Structures are given as structure tokens and as C-alpha cells.
Amino acid sequence: MTQPKTLAELVGLDPAPCSLGESALIMVDCQNTYLSGPMELVGVEQAMAEAELLLTRAREAGIPVIHIAHDAGPGSLYDVQAENGKIASPVAPIAEEPTVVKNFPNSFAQTDLHERLQKLGISNLIVVGFMTHMCVSSTARGAFDLGYRTTVVGDATATRDLPTTDGKVVQAANVREAALAFRLGRHGREVGERYSCVARNTDGAQAMNEHEKINYVEFPSKDIEATKKFFTAALGWSFVDYGPEYTSFSDEGLNGGFFKSDLNSSTATGSALLVFYSKELEKTQSKIENAGGSIIKPTFPFPGGRRFHFSDPNGNEYAVWSDNGV
Q: Checking phi first, is residue 246 left (phi over 0); if not, alpha (psi -120 to 50) or beta?
């Protein structure tokens, strides 16, 4: 049986998600009402932790963060003046982060969210929050209609079981999966399923473990925090820490990690070289330099294209190549 494809895939659109460093983070309805009581969501604690992690990375990267809070009025399940309507403490706004209060599932409906983003010059959005099938989906669709390129981080969303008209129950996992299936569209296109979607594979270990295939790559790092800050700012990477001396990254073309070490990796010492691909070589070089990287081999001809080498703040050497502009 042929594997089904989205419309975007059928017409060959690029499914790449938005880069964190070039986007605004929209935190949709991360409110206490979803943590307990009649609106408690399935898997909400894990999703909230993922949202908190992404929020931390966004703050480190210095990108705009906008919080959304749903208000259904006094005494409701979404009373922003009551405890249940407050944004949960792990992801609560800090001083410079605005909160947009809405009254409809679409965060753009009758709010100033679009105006705020326009003033910031934002065209890429990363959306997380609750519920996957309601306000997250509605907000992503609304963003698409306004011309934004939007990525929903599936693991940082959650939803709940829903009753059907014939008395059956649709499990939360199926509701969430169906909501996230509307994906891979990009703004400015006439064809596409509305918005991009990124969701970590819950069977990640199985997905990585292919017999006698490259499984994982690790690099030394003298300063783990500096490494995370650099790659988050330059390339929009996200990390998961495993203690103070190890951090991992995933979904960046290859999974891997950085371990605490006074050594570094470079071709001068015979180390393997990690090579990135870029469609816009000069733009990628500028992002790397602005984030604190150093160009150690300026752009030069390379079989099939051009490339340059750079080092991160810890002295590890990498290369970026492109087949554009040759």
C-alpha cells in the first residue's frame, strides 16, 4: 500500500520547520486549568516540561516570546483573575514578555497579536501550548491565513479524551495525532496543509537504532552552557540536559550530544568533521559570526559547491557547504 502524503509533500514544498533563532515563540494557554480538575489534559506534565524547555531556549536566544491566556469570564474554567486562569508557574511570563488575553480559540481573533508581531518584524512563529486540537490548531491556522510561516512543536502540546455523538470516546492520543497531521504547509503558498509540525518521536530509541547505521555523534565542550547558547542563537537548536556535564540535541539532521571536556575537535588534530548544508551560505555564515562563532577557513570551492569552516566558542571545528551560487 502506498504511504499517504500531504498536499505539500505531493507538490514538493520544503517541510523544514522554522529556526528558533529566526522566530517568535507563542505560548498558547499554558494555564493552570489544564493541570488538574475537569480540564486536566492527558500527558500535560510532560508537555508542560517540553514547553518550559523551549521557553528557556528562546530566552537564551533572545527571540520574542508572547504568552496567550484564554479568558471566559469570572467563575469560568478560564477565569484569568482566578488561580485556574493564571499561566502555570513553570512557564510564567517574565517582566518583558507580554501576555495577550483572548476570548476565542484563534489567538489572533479580536486581539492585537498580529499588530505586535508586525511591529517586531516577525514572519516565523513557533507555537506550543494547549489544547492541541483547539487553540493551538486554531492559532496556527489563523497565523497561516495572515501569512506567517508556522511550526507547532507537537511534544509541547497536549489534549484530552473527547466524547463522540454516539457515546464513544476518542482517546486523547488520537485527537492529538489527528490535530498534528495537518502539517507541512508554508506561508505564501497556495497549496499546503496550513502549518508545519515538529513532534519528537516517542519511540525515539527505536527510530535511532538501525542495524549498523550511524546512531549518534558526540563532541567535546569546555563550556556546556556556552555551547548551548551558541547553537541556539546561530542555528535554533534545542537541547536536553543530562546533568551538568552532558547535553543532547536531536532532529538537527543527526542526533548527538556534547560532553564536558578540556579538549576540542578539529581537522588539525585528525578529528572527524561535522558538515552542515545551507541553501544560503553567506546568510548562514553571518548567523554563525553574530552568535560568536569564528570563521577559520573562508568560503572556498568544493566539489559540487562551496563551503567554509568555522569554530564554536569552545574551539570545535565544523564546515558548512552549499550547492547554491556555484
A: beta
Cβ burial of 214 (10 Å; 0-12, 13-18, 19+) is exposed
Q: Whose CA is closest to 312, among 297, 283, 291?
A: 291
Asked whether residue 184 carries a pLDDT value surpassing 90, the answer given is no
Strands (E), 84-216: 99-102, 124-130, 149-158, 162-163, 169-170, 196-198
* Residues 42 and 161: beta-carbon distance below 8 Å: yes
Among this protein's residues, is 18 annotated catalytic?
no
- When mean pLDDT is compared across 64-78, 120-134, 173-187, 193-207, the lowest value belongs to 193-207
d(CA 211, CA 116): 49
Give the amino acid at 141.
R
Q: Which residue ranges form the domains of the chain, and what is each CATH number? A: 11-198 (3.40.50.850), 217-322 (3.10.180.10)
Buried b (16+ CB within 10 A) or exposed e, 101-115: ebeebbbbeebebbe
Q: Is 86 a catalytic residue?
A: no
Catalytic residue among 30, 79, 102, 155: 102
pLDDT at 31 over 70: yes
Report whether pLDDT(58) > 50.
yes
Run of H or E residues at 232:
helix 224-235
**Which of the two residues, 60 and 102, has the higher pLDDT score?**
102
102 an active-site residue?
yes
User: Given 18, 30, 79, 135, which residue is catalytic?
Assistant: 135
